[in-house]
Queue: 4 jobs
Job 1
Amino acid sequence: MARLEVRGLRKSFGANEVCRGIDLTVAEGEMVCLIGASGSGKSTLLRCLNLLEPIDDGVILLDGVDIAEPGLDPQPVRQRIGIVFQSFNLFPHMTALENVLLAPRRVRGRTREALMPEVEALFARFGLSDRMEHYPDQLSGGQQQRVAIVRALAMTPEIMLFDEITSALDPELVGEVLDVLRDLRADGMTMVLATHEMGFARELADKVCFLDAGTILEEGPPAELFSQPRHERTRAFLSRVL
Amino acid sequence: MLAAIVLLVPLAPGWPAVKKSFANGEVFAKTFPGLLDAFLLDIAIFAWSAPLIFAAGLIVALMRDARAPALYPLRLLGIVYTDVFRGVPVILVIYLVGFGVPGLGMPRPWNSPYLWGTVALVLTYAAYVAEVFRTGIESIHQSQRAAALSLGLSESDTMRYVILPQAIRRVVPANMNLFIALQKDVALLSFIGPVEIFRQAGVYKSLLANFTPYVGAALIFLAVTIPATRYADHLMAKQLRARS
Amino acid sequence: MRLTVSILALSVASGAAFAQNDCAAGKTLTEGTLTVATGNPAYFPWVIDDAPESKQGFEAAVAYAVANAMGFSDDQVTWVRSSFDQAIQPGAKDFDINIQQYSITPERDEIVDFSAPYYSAAMAVLTRKPVVDAGLDTSFEALKGVKWGADAATTAVPMLAEIIQPDEAPLLYNDNADVVEAMKAGQIDAALFDLPTALYLGAVVLDDGVVLGQFPAERTEKPDQFGMLFEEGNPLKACVDAALEQLRADGTLAQLEATWLSETTGVPVIE
């Protein structure tokens, strides 16, 4: 059964309809990559899945329950679905450790002491043990993005959304962040990524969806989609980015 | 320019008379200790008003930032409040609140001009401080809010732990300037009775028919406000450097 | 008949102009005109209805009497308004004389000139009936114990400090209206004014005002004397002093005082 299922999702900003009826299914432990040109609706779709944007029409089913119903409290849902942003969005007035501890303490009501073992393990897992007391502006872009991932993981989400998390990084720092994703993939985390890293998508994705003008024009296993795209627009896009 | 003033002003025909009534050393020495003493009252009024203004300003700023449609009346109240109290001169508020409210028939000590004068200062300055806080809150990028909400934090925790700490820090220089203005406006409480430095200088002026006490009072104010202004400028410059 | 009237008018006018030449000639801002300043607004009973031109009120009447004695006709008197601060600043004045209950003090006299006094006022205690009901009387113990207020720019301030020495520091205000407002708000119990002002405020402004008592001149170190104010060194002062002396000698001043200022009876003397 699908963990996450989207049906007919529509979202407009003013007169600009960014998502025009998106259908998407994500199975347990699956890694789905969203590709497509800027403005094709990838980021908006992810923000809708995390309920950061209210949707205009359609349903978002998490384990079969519609989470996009108007009036529903978004907080419990957001605790189950983590998101990492392109621009890191760490809290600049807090150390890396405080960034990570904030939500588990305030939302789950857990103590710092109780959290420390697992949080320290997360920092260690992503090579950040010596960066816990640093403030974001003392960290490199790659380190900041890894801290942002640790921050999301500290809430033990069931599904993780990644919104072009390597796009703001210097090329030499992209690798260390992709390694984190590989690690999570190996761990069996259910993930949806918006990405421009075609090589990475081809290597690891279970499914690749090509978004064009607010709809999923074409989807399939990476081997299929990258080598034999059915649509002319997909072909054109791939020839530009590959 | 300054040198020209220093050199030329004493040559003006009116200078001896002006000097006698504005820069009289004898009067200065006689009145300065009394002025310093009266200035303690200014400092006290400032000291108890400032935290109240900070708190009230923050509350009003949060009211104005209320997003939920159900909280619209609160938001409207915040808007009306800041519009009204930024639009009325402080001295009018001090008169109206300082004499008006106790005039309703309050018993002592609840009719104290210190109490209602303070209320007037807080009402007025909280409106300005609220606007500064609001600017600060709005200056924090939406992505910070999104990041906090995406972690499951409530709106109020997001405001409390993520937005406000950054916003308050960012507007420290602007608030410093407001509190320097407050230090000067404390003197307006003298209009409803309290004998602080401005009033004490006025009493000396009437008694001695000499304006030198005003010069003394101005010097005392400057001794406090110039360092404070410098410090605010320093903070502002530091912040600009940090952001660029 | 018409001719007679014109001639009469002419002779009065020329007579006035001639008389003015005696002393005040060349000493006024505008030749042939006496420019008199008063407060803005000017209060009862010093000026009635804020209209000094009507000659109604003690200071208005005294001003016209002095002007007449110096040889100015009534329509040669021009009124302007000034504040206390304006008047004691050094520099040129836009008035010949300024009359608005200026207490004559040596310090003020260093900056500006004063005429001989045209009125000597005792200081009086103004309070409200509830305060009297609560036990305020003219004993010094009682007077010390209440909350005092005064107009900051008047000699009431040093008098309070020297004679009454209240337990709590007095509250001070910009003008009489504010003192009365504080009294109405219950922020002060009593205030010190010169007697005519106290009588007026007690009777007209306060619903329940009581003039509790007055201080005799001998209890006061410097009994308040009102003088007209001139720019420092104004030669007109000699002419005004002569006119005032003449008005005092012929009883005009006393008569004007009786006409415009209420009798002080009924206000006990504070021992």
Note: Chain B touches chain C at residues 14, 17-18, 20-21, 99, 102-103, 105-108, 111-113, 190-195, 199, 202-203, 206-211 (CB under 8 Å).
Job 2
Amino acid sequence: MSTKPTAYTPHPMEKRVLLRDHLGVDFTRLENYLAHGGFKMWQKAMELGRDGVLAEVKASGLRGRGGAGFPTGMKWSFLPKDERPRYLVVNADEGEPGTFKDRYFLELDPFRQLEGILIAAYTINAHVSYIYIRGEYWNSKAVTEDAIAQLYKAGWLGKNIQGSGFDLDVYMQTGAGAYICGEETALIESIEGKPGMPRLKPPFPANIGVFGMPTIVNNTETLSAVPVILEMGGEVWAALGTPKNGGTKLVGVAGHVKTPGLFEVPMGASMRDVIYTLGGGITDDREILAIIPGGSSCPFLTKDEIDVAMDFDGLKPVGSMLGTACITVMAEGLTDLLGVMQRVTAFYQHESCGQCTPCRQGTGWLKAIADKMDEGLGEDAHIDLLISACNQIEGNTICAHGEAAAWPIRSIAKKFRPQLEAAIRQRAAAHGYVVKPLAAHPAA
Amino acid sequence: MSEPIAFSAAANAKIADLLGRYPRKQGALIPTLYVAQDEFGWLKPEVMQLVANTLELPLSSVLATAMFYTMLYKKPVGRFHVQICTNVSCYLLGSDELMAIAQAALGIAPGESTPDGLFTLESVQCLCACDRAPTLQINKEDHFKVTPAKFKELLETLKTDGVKLGPPVGWLADQHHAHAAHA
């Protein structure tokens, strides 16, 4: 299934407490996981008790690694104090373009996440957990299902786990090719066997979630961090990062860099260092043209906007966000930015669930305009039209897919206007067309 | 329309296991549609009806869910389902060239299948292995850091394998069927 792991030495800039592929151990085998201290934190959780675990997670300042950065401990304490059954749902529907972090846990260290699930389920008193894995992740699904089977066989799942009196069933749930199911309420609908259309909130999943019951939805990286937090103690974890941004973060670097890959750094690491040191610098030592900081829903950055701290607050000054912390680097001279923009519009149009008009129609218009520009029929006024369409999508939809579609396109239109104008002319010339100047346009 | 179809004993056992995982039968719908797809190749109308009967759901619920998800196939898919990522990271590193190679080698456009039923070509959204771009997926297998030379060689190998394996069961009948349904 997975390739045989080989040991290597990570870069000294990294701080590895989650990633451990460099050890060269096959962590898809339960015996290896146990031999490296696996499930010791389950025992510790039993000693600490539910309130004790919750206190550690709160002290750690752990914020949701799916991209929104909501404090995990606070989310867990939102569950109503009633007798209804509760569910723990794991969001492993990794699909944000540019992102490749949860794949690591799902394929190479599945028991880390499963120990986190066991501890979290115990803490919130859930007895069923669904791990919702993206449909295209065939290898992740196979490894995770196999890991679950190993745990049942060894008495780490099912009834009366290791004599604790606690019961938990964990099921692998497969997605089926819909990006929107990464949105937690769409994911819940999908587990219920329905089209993945996000729900209006409130009610929030903590009260009315999967099958109408109280539900906590956590990302794979978030849950995988839980055993590590218990091991080092919440406060020690928190101290690894920046204020309000505890711990470490998996970061990816891809695109036009010399050494693309997945790394782990303390929260708040410099984005420039991540790109130039861990990513090895830009292909052919070129200049950066543009950066997507954490998946294509994030507003794009220019080369002058990368001196920022990679945590959930550090990108606010440059009008963007950490997202999934997997960076896409686009180099000057190697990047057709209009082509990139067209791909981004096509993606969000394709993945809109279609229930809200501003998103369904708006993403279609963004794509139609970008297509027109791409086909050599662009005008400068189209850039303003893009901005106008983005403004009409933003804030007018049930879920954040609207913003995810609008923000990157608006950032390109505003920050990279000269490049777009040049690209429009280049495309038009290639087709023998003449670009209409801005002043001649009736809307101008 | 056509003779009644039924799940194999193995598929029925899988579905029974799936039903045990959810408090409502509809929870088992998407995994059951995958089971049906593995069994019958694609979700032709009588398969949708079979799933509806098996899970005791209205046909409309089955159709609504099946229509929403791209990985639940509403038309026949060839022996080799070649899906090339054309999103940003792969686009930056040459996915358009890979798509052009596939189109030339197979003689079909994205979204089409070869008439012999051996290949279906599609573009796919970000496969989330951007550090190993460009990426593509053939059936359930990932291919990373795909170079044009490697891809050409791979397609040639699959063509040879395809001659031995032939199209999916019922390919020709399904083509006629799909034609008739759309006529």
Note: Chain A touches chain B through 54 residues (CB under 8 Å).
Job 3
Amino acid sequence: MSDVAARPSASPGRLVWNRLLRHRLAVVSLLFLLVLLILSLAAPWIADLRGVDPTATDLFRRFEPPSAEHWLGTDDLGRDLFQRLLDGGRVSLLVGVSGALLSAVIGAVIGVVAGYRGGRLDAVLMRLTDGVIALPLLPLLIVIAAIDPRKIGVPVELAQSETFSLYRIIVIVALTGWTTVARLVRAETLSLKARDFTRAAQALGARPGRIMFRHILPNAAGSLVVATTLSIGALILLESTLSFLGLGTQPPAASWGNMLTGAQELLQQAPILALLPGLLIFLTVMAFNFLGDGLQDALDPRSERRL
Amino acid sequence: MTRYLVSRAVQTAITLALMSFVVYLLIGLMPGDPIDFMIAGDPKMTAADVTRLKAVYGLDKPLLERYLAWALQALQGNFGYSRSYSQPVLAVLWPRLVNTFVLAGLAFVIAVAIALPLGIWAASRPRSRSDYLINLFCFGGISTPPFWLALLLITLFAVKLGWLPAGGQADIRPGTTWWAALADRLRYLVLPVLTLTLVQLGGYTRFMRGAMIEVLRQDYIRTARAKGVPETGVRWRHAFGNALAPVLTILALSFGGLFSGALITETMFAWPGMGKAIYQAILDNDYNLALVGLLIATLATMLGNLLADLAYAWVDPRVSIEQSA
């Protein structure tokens, strides 16, 4: 008994972290993602150290088997496959994470405003959310990805730059992700706004904006984190699909999706070119899903007494 | 009930109208227009020809005016011609709608038939080895890029083993008897249906498992067990029906989405369905076809939503349709 009393009480964050560490798959996933993140961020330095240029094509050295110079061999244009995979990983992670964060922000604002304000505004916002959910998203995203930025007044140089194509795909994938978050946050807000601490804040004269963003949203943070983690995986899948179709990340920039575009023809000659990018998408998406699942269990107090 | 259906019909009509306008605008923003294709196809065309052609197709008018003209025609049931097929749009889309219905329907039925029992099986032994394996399999299914899965299946079964065709819909000369023709059709269906089934299976199984676990925690289940109802009875008589309501909603929603969601599978296996038609139409600047195809896909999704709500009210008598209208 004295033992229990002597133990310093752990902070809620610490408790969640400890519970997460007990989820073996989530820990493995987290490690995998960290390694991937570090490698893909360090890709330019790794390329320098190895003395290879990932963009340099060499048509005399196509489809080379793995060697000391090209660790995983070369692709159909003679580029180093290992470096291309790292570059592709950076794009996938960047698009997935920023897309998910952007959808989390859009979804959280819409959800908390709809839930807190209620009434007609709530009805309009939720109709909008339901409407977006009811749309045939994939073909619609293809239309949006296919539009010519010059026709909406984007200057030519900007429209053709790599950065623009990256921002564009991030916005496109975020357009699908926010609906889940909005519904989730709205549901949480409805229950949180009836709680005593919200009522106390109201009684003290706090403005609605302060209540929504300082009192309600932080309390919905747990489910927000889970939803965002899970949506990173989904958005990476979406990015790879659009890039595979030739509408996402544009070559010569590498992405795991566009590395597979021509892979169907290459399967006979160099199966590794078709297998590795797909396998990396699969593993990364899976890792984010496991991590999200682990976080959900760790954040859900009921999971302790789950059968 | 009638009032509810009427209000839903009005909502659907408004959504479709909004959707058609937005898509019309977006398509107008895509690079090139039909005349550019004609110019590319005929180098002898003069600037005067181009202006005349733009006038013939109405492309010299402002976008809003063009949309209103299109909408007026569409309201009279005239959806225009597909540029790449030189046929009325509906004549092009109808057989594709049927093809998608066959592909998506088969995959959906198979996926549901496997997912529901599998989810219940896993839910009744939570944290066991089989639950763990099923969970792993589900996550694998959710995380696989559909186009990559199709690629692997084609490589394995069509290229390496040569058992099944890699794509298409039927042999040029399928056998003489009707059953030989049917067998031929089925051979072409195996790989696309397998792909689409695997893509959906994981999600459905997890929904069923989650819903069942949630229900098995309820007090009335404890009561039933305490009364001495055998475990099979608890599971099927007391739990299943209650767990089904949320799952049915998800299922109906995703079935509507399949009409366009099969896009990747259809494209990979050259299956002439709606998704592939819409995708191809977007690439080919076939405005009318892309627009009407997207509207039909939206309609399908919305009918799926309606079905989801009706199914919910049917399974769970506490939900009143009239109130939500």
Note: DSSP finds 14 helices and no strands in chain A.
Job 4
Amino acid sequence: MGSKIGTMGTEELEQLVITLEPRCRKRQSADRAAVIAPVAELDSLMRKLRDEHLLSFDLLLDHTAIDHIQEGRFELVYLLYSTRHGHHLMVTCDVDRANPVVPTVSEVWPIAHWQEREVFDLFGIGYDGHLDLRRVFLEDDWKGYPLRKDYTDPDMLEPA
Amino acid sequence: MSVTVRTLSELLMPPSVADSPLSTQEYFVNMGPQHPIAHGSLRIVLLLDGETIRKVIPVPGYVHRGIEKMCEHMNYRKIIPLTDRMDYLSALMNNWVVARTVEMAAGIETNARIETIRTIMSELQRLQSHVLWWGVLGMDLGAFTAFLYSFRDREIIGEIFEETIGARLTMNYIQPGGLMYDILPDFVSKVKKLLGYLRPLINEYDALLSGNAILQERLRNIGILDGKDAISLGCTGPVLRASGVPYDLRKVEPYGVYDKVDFDVVIGTKGDCWDRYYVRMEEMRQSIRIVEQLIDNLPAGPYMVTKYNARLKLPKGRYYGQVETARGVLGAFIYSDGDGDAPYRMHFRSPNFNNLWAVTHIAPGWRIADYISIQSSLDLVIPDIDR
């Protein structure tokens, strides 16, 4: 659905992003234009995605994470939308599960400030440069990060 | 381009000294978690200087039930009832976003009858939600009569849902592959009667509340949210449209049968509380218009295209589908690992979570009484923030 709408096709969009940031790769098994960005390039890529006039992704629709516990990594997912061109892009970023730290994108899109707080609260991802990294739903003294696949809690019916 | 010039003294002095010759003290006040304007459990910490708000710190989480974690242990049909409990005033649209994403991922084609009934039901619910919001906004600002009117009319829409769906709030109606039940034979005539009843009522609402001088004073020019800021703050729905951005999924990326009906995207010009108020008032009229165009020509066909107890297994991949609820863009992100019929990871992009944070941007500088208008005009539903 999302990939067909807008002026640019999926292939064209992915190719343009890779031209802008050559260290990005295409992300397979996604339902729209999707790229994998290395952690080191995430900040500069996001700024280019917002500012490049052919792309102008001005709305960060959603940010979340996936815990690939078998492969020892977290996958961060950013869903971008451009209100000017009407196209969607999924940016994913793999980060080591033992030391999950990525640069914040809250300077690029202010809403990321709170979306990142949610991911920090539930996954324990650290955001470098975030000005107010606090838990958003759970108590400040909560132990562990509930959406991780290895999270256990004495009150859970089926321990992981 | 806009250039904001700041002064050093503004940065170094506490705000109270910067704009007042008197020395005052700043203090924190807790609004909530139990406060009438929260419409649920939302704690707001205000940093006040006298009655002027300096800083707003929203503290959500009092209704956090871990719906996303629960989804990881359930198949896609069992997820539907959980979504009712997020934004309970848009329960049908919440059902629809899961149904739609799963249908797109599994390649299920529904028929025209299913899509038309889904659209009618969603618009009726949008109408019901906006009617309730209107009354509650009136109550928040001290006009209790509006609340009584809205609850009276909300019941009448609720009865139509109850007759077809069997529930008034937690619908569990729109399923992947179709609908839970077909509509009853007298559904069409009852909806027509309802529309005939509601159409003049919206004008009555205007006459009762919109023209009121006190209401206008409390909404006009209060809490102005610029269109550019609204986009960067992730706002969607009536909040974004009131700031003059014509982003409505029903027009931009039509789903259901929205591409076959004629309706207008209502936008504001200024982005103040009044614009957010009036955008919703007009959206009620547009919803009536949409239902009127659809109700006469309901296509024939089955109400479910898959077997109800068929196992839904999605191929490995990342899927994201969205619908426009009464409060903005609701998205469902599914990551399926290809084995098992439960999602490996399910995430909801909730419109209320993203709209909430606009208060931290627009409320500072206004008085506590204005804060009531600002939060009321954002129309937040707390369980959808917390999930």
Note: The longest strand of chain B covers residues 317-325.
